[in-house]
Design brief:
Radius of gyration: 29 Å
Helix content: 25-40%
Distance between the termini: 50 Å
Length: 751
């Protein structure tokens, strides 16, 4: 693992230097770089064959790390000195030649071991299907009786609040049982409101309650014993905790041999459907050795189906850096994988695309679990069992692949952990902190950083942001910049000279100055080809020059405070042909404005459009998500036109003025989710909306009572026609409104 990660990381460093405008010509001799690259390819092929020894891989890893340190240290020294000189790679080539000779000698001694056993190989880019989640519960094996017991306890007639614990050791399937009960149709139909939260060893009550419920009124209504049949389920490893809440608790037991074998077959023989006869005897022995432990059976089943290849090991074992019992954003750990140099580049895919293939493979092996999904069905978050995190930590520490620093290990506490890291590692690549007392100048001194995330719950003074502006271009290889904590952050034009920039995000916003004119750079324009995300930019002057600098941007979020700044936007937004997600605040769009046809997600706020102005937006051929925020559209009546919004799956509307919405099913033919908020004047949800065959959810928050009643009527009509898939959620600001709505003589079911 460590050898693979070291060699791939070194290859990434060389590649980035060769494609850097400042170092590509002057730093390396082309023939030397080519020679070094060939030797690294040879070593990587050998490592991927899985026929090495621990000692030999350790030597390869040390040699690659040493070479990488030499190259990066040279660059750091050059940047700090302000001059660029070439680096002779001959010594590094000799070192790698020596390692190559060792490998050749090893292969000759072992004879034939250089051949890769194809049955155990896995292509690093073999997973080409989109990474999506099925949105279904993890299928249980051997827990049917426990599930029935739990559902009976949930739906019993006791009106008082019941707390039902599930007790058992780690990895025995407590969460899987709870999740299957939580998502069962019986529970969904029985309870008005369902909520889920994860409580780890380090927790925040405020964070837990914010996930469970929104608003004090609801908290008081459902978490106190009001004899309304509320239920709370909790999982625990401690039997005394379960007993504390009463005798009615579920004790999760180990699986017997038959159920263990059945579960192993499901996980190891997904495509075949069952075990082949020649493997049944050994398979049952494996299942028996798992001793009824579900997590162990699931993981081994995944590994039997797909032997964990070398290229996945650094990515998987690096998951040990994340806290236990937390949802982990896919976008974050993919960015970290790339920053650490774990992803092997190829000519046909971007690093992000390769990383997504790695992610899919780890999910298929049951090493990572799907958490939340995005609007388009792609995976937003993943989870990893805490026992597997322990495994990751132990393995990486054994191989000296990862060194974890806890806050208590820092000489002066958590806020000084950065300075501690500065002492330990001069070539720091990842800096990810909240409320750290280090200034931006301290951070930028670490010029080898690839991933920088510095957030603060307290707003900083303006002079701190100025320091960022003047020195940011020193981060020659930075890919992700996420800086928060100030409302007056300004980035000068130097930021346009960082070619590896991939994700730029500023939670409180940033004023981004225009790039220098080409004539001022001797016509040497730096195009940010890797830039995909540009979020929370204030008053961005989307000039023709800016658009040429960001040709591959996919996500763009702009806030226009000065209306004159958005003039260029109207003329040039259509030139961003890779743009998929656009979020605009404060833009008065002109009618018939041409947006990129690639646009899939569009969010508008304070745009002051008329409803008929949505015609141009509705004609976008790939638009799947439309969010109309507060002040985005003005007027009391919306009459959509047939033939528009043909691909729209998600529609969100916030409007204080809309009264009449005249729509039929053919106006939104593939709509799946309708979310409406603060429609105080809306008379009704159009009945034709209920006729859309793909519609799965109508979610209403703080809308008029008549609109809520119309949604219930749509639900009743669909149920009478046999459509049990439609869900209607209705939320009220105050409990009095909810009780008033309930007191009406409607026969409503789920909401």
């Amino acid at each position: 693992m460590a050898a693979y990660a070291a060699v791939v990381s070194l290859m990434n460093v060389i590649y980035n230097i060769q494609n850097h405008h400042q170092f590509s010509i002057s730093l390396f001799d082309e023939k030397q770089a080519e020679s070094l690259g060939e030797k690294l390819d040879f070593l990587l092929d050998f490592i991927e064959s899985n026929h090495s020894t621990e000692l030999l891989e350790s030597e390869i890893a040390s040699a690659a790390h040493a070479a990488e340190d030499v190259i990066e240290s040279h660059i750091v020294d050059q940047i700090h000195s302000g001059s660029i000189s070439s680096l002779d790679l001959q010594k590094l080539i000799k070192v790698m030649d020596h390692m190559k000779d060792k490998v050749v000698h090893f292969k000759e001694e072992k004879g034939g071991l250089s051949k890769v056993h194809q049955q155990y190989s896995m292509s690093a880019t073999s997973s080409t299907a989109p990474i999506t989640g099925g949105g279904k519960s993890t299928k249980m094996v051997g827990c049917e009786e426990e599930l029935i017991q739990l559902l009976d306890a949930f739906t019993g007639r006791q009106p008082s609040l019941q707390i039902i614990p599930i007790e058992g050791m780690g990895g025995i399937g407590k969460t899987t049982l709870a999740r299957n009960a939580y998502e069962s149709r019986l529970i969904v139909n029985h309870f008005d409101i369902c909520a889920w939260a994860t409580i780890s060893q380090e927790y925040s009550l405020k964070e837990i309650f914010s996930k469970l419920l929104s608003g004090k009124e609801k908290m008081m209504l459902f978490l106190t014993d009001n004899n309304n049949g509320s239920r709370i389920i909790l999982t625990t490893r401690l039997s005394n905790v379960a007993v504390h809440f009463g005798s009615s608790y579920v004790s999760k037991k180990f699986l017997d041999e038959d159920k263990s074998w059945k579960l192993l077959c499901e996980k190891a023989f997904v495509q075949e459907g069952c075990c082949t006869p020649e493997l049944e005897k050994i398979g049952k022995k494996i299942a028996k050795k798992c001793k009824g432990f579900p997590l162990l059976i699931v993981v081994i089943g995944g590994l039997l189906r797909n032997h964990l290849p070398t290229h996945l090991k650094p990515c998987f074992f690096n998951m040990g850096i994340f806290p236990k019992d937390r949802d982990i954003y896919v976008s974050k750990f993919i960015a970290l994988w790339i920053a650490e140099g774990f992803i092997k580049p190829n000519k046909t895919q971007s690093l992000e695309e390769v990383a997504e293939c790695y992610l899919k493979d780890l999910i298929d092996m049951n090493l990572l679990l799907v958490g939340r999904l995005r609007w388009n069905g792609k995976i937003k978050t993943c989870t990893i069992h805490d026992l597997l995190i322990d495994l990751c930590i132990k393995t990486t520490q054994k191989e000296k692949f990862l060194y974890l620093i806890k806050s208590c290990d820092s000489p002066r506490g958590i806020n000084n952990a950065f300075y501690f890291m500065k002492i330990l590692q001069r070539l720091l690549r990842v800096f990810d902190v909240i409320d750290c007392d280090s200034s931006m100048n301290d951070i930028v001194e670490q010029v080898d950083l690839r991933y920088v995330k510095k957030l603060s719950y307290f707003r900083e003074l303006d002079h701190t942001s100025r320091e960022l502006c003047l020195s940011i271009s020193l981060l020659w290889n930075v890919q992700t910049l996420n800086i928060g904590g100030t409302e007056r952050l300004v980035a000068l034009s130097e930021i346009w000279s960082i070619p590896q920039l991939t994700h730029l995000e500023f939670p409180e916003g940033i004023y981004l100055m225009e790039p220098p004119l080409r004539s001022e750079q001797n016509n040497d324009c730096i195009v940010l080809k890797n830039l995909q995300t540009l979020k929370r930019i204030k008053n961005l002057k989307l000039s023709e020059e800016v658009c040429k600098r960001i040709p591959n941007v996919k996500i763009l979020k702009i806030r226009y405070i000065d209306k004159s700044s958005c003039d260029n936007f109207q003329y040039n937004i259509g030139t961003l042909h890779k743009l998929e997600s656009l979020n605009l605040w404060g833009v008065n769009l002109v009618r018939n404005l041409k947006f990129p046809s690639s646009l899939k997600r569009f969010t508008l706020t304070c745009s002051n459009l008329d409803w008929e102005d949505l015609t141009g937006i509705g004609s976008l051929p790939n638009l799947e998500v439309l969010k109309l925020g507060k002040g985005s559209v003005l007027g009391s009546e919306w009459n959509p036109i047939e033939g528009e919004f043909l691909c729209l799956k998600y529609l969100s509307i916030v409007s204080f003025e809309l009264e009449y919405w005249n729509a039929e099913s053919f106006h939104f033919p593939v709509l799946e989710k309708l979310v409406v908020d603060a429609l105080w004047k809306l008379y009704e949800i159009p009945s034709g909306i209920g006729e859309i065959p793909t519609l799965a959810l109508i979610d209403m928050d703080d809308c008029s009572e008549s609109a809520a009643i119309s949604a219930i009527r749509i639900l009743e009509e669909q149920e009478s026609q046999g459509n049990d898939d439609l869900r209607v959620h209705i939320k009220f600001m105050w409990s009095e409104e909810l009780e008033g709505f309930k007191s009406s003589n409607l026969q409503f079911g789920r909401y």
